[in-house]
Design goal:
The chain has 6 helices and 7 strands. It is an alpha/beta fold and 270 residues long. Bound molecules: NADP nicotinamide-adenine-dinucleotide phosphate (NAP).
Length: 270
């Protein structure tokens, strides 16, 4: 009897782990529950945001996406709102549900230029896309986030906000502003049960990084720059975003998590 039940449990666990590996979800993610949670992903049509949408859909969350275009791979259950954050109007009041348990702002740019060629327009565009856009979306979602009783906001910065890299002045300035806005918001919203955290990735293989990873030589050079020996893939970042959205991180707020293959903190070639 004892041996039979042990065998049944082992077979169940084995199948469970196999399924997690098959759909490419890190095992620890399987412990997180998003069932009946309403989560908004701004910029969920591509790259990191799209990976977050897929992960949350697999975990039976109700997913809301705002972006300029739709992705064909979304589940038909995804609720979509067309939005260009450059118009600075946030989300329309009737799009969001009564309660919003999570918000991910995965919109951004990688416009690299020598400082001598950076224009005022470049600086303003990057700021609007990364900072003002996020602020307007959070502001128009605030009521629904507060209604949830416990909610999590995740913003995306960049390794370049705090690690000096040539040609990054405009994007570094905006991403540093994202981090500054996040800690202030985390303080202001903690009393409402809303956590605010930031993920700071290094170079990750998504459409905005295509120019930087567009040849075998560029990929090899990028891999060598990272102590872990490779550049990132969207699931490296989406797994951490999912953790920050989940109840498992309920005591983490006002933090910036570097997800960068060790680039920002390690020197392995001494
Ligand atoms: N990939 C990297 O190497 C890397 C490194 C560091 C930080 N990051 C940050 O990671 C985040 C996600 O980037 P990603 O790599 O996933 O890029 P991506 O594949 O280009 O995705 C960007 C998303 O933002 C949306 N978006 C862009 N402009 C928009 C606008 N004006 N209004 C509304 N939505 C807009 C896009 O959707 P539509 O085109 O449909 O609007 C898309 O869904 C960004 O904050 C980026 O700065 C990326």
């Amino acid at each position: 009897m004892y041996i039979t039940s042990t065998l049944v449990i082992l077979v169940y666990l084995h199948t469970f782990i196999d399924e997690c590996l098959y759909i490419n979800i890190p095992i620890h993610c399987c412990l997180m529950s998003f069932k009946e949670k309403n989560i908004l992903v701004v910029g969920g049509s591509s790259g990191i945001g799209l990976d977050v949408v897929q992960l949350l859909t697999e975990k039976e969350s109700s997913v809301y996406v705002a972006s300029r275009t739709r992705a064909e791979s979304w589940s038909p259950l995804v609720k979509y709102q067309e939005l260009d954050v450059m118009e600075n109007r946030g989300l329309p009041g009737d799009f969001l549900p009564e309660q919003l348990h999570g918000l991910v702002y995965s919109v951004g740019s990688i416009n690299l230029k020598p400082f001598s060629r950076v224009t005022e327009e470049d600086l303003i565009q990057d700021f609007r896309l990364n900072v003002t856009g996020a602020a307007m979306v959070i502001q128009t979602s605030l009521k629904a986030l507060r209604n949830a009783g416990s909610a999590s906001v995740v913003l995306i910065s960049s390794v370049a906000a705090r690690t000096g890299m040539g040609f990054h002045t405009s994007i570094s300035a905006s991403k540093a502003a994202v981090e500054g806005m996040a800690v202030s918001l985390a303080a202001e919203l903690a009393g409402y049960g809303i956590r605010v955290n930031v993920v700071a990735p290094s170079l990750t293989d998504t459409p905005i990084a295509a120019k930087l990873l567009g040849s075998a030589e560029k990929r090899e050079a990028a891999a060598k720059r990272h102590p872990i020996g490779r550049s990132g893939v969207p699931s490296d970042i989406s797994a951490v975003i999912a953790f920050l959205l989940s109840e498992e991180s309920s005591w983490i707020t006002g933090q910036v998590l570097n997800v960068d293959g060790g680039l920002s903190s390690l020197r392995t070639n001494l």
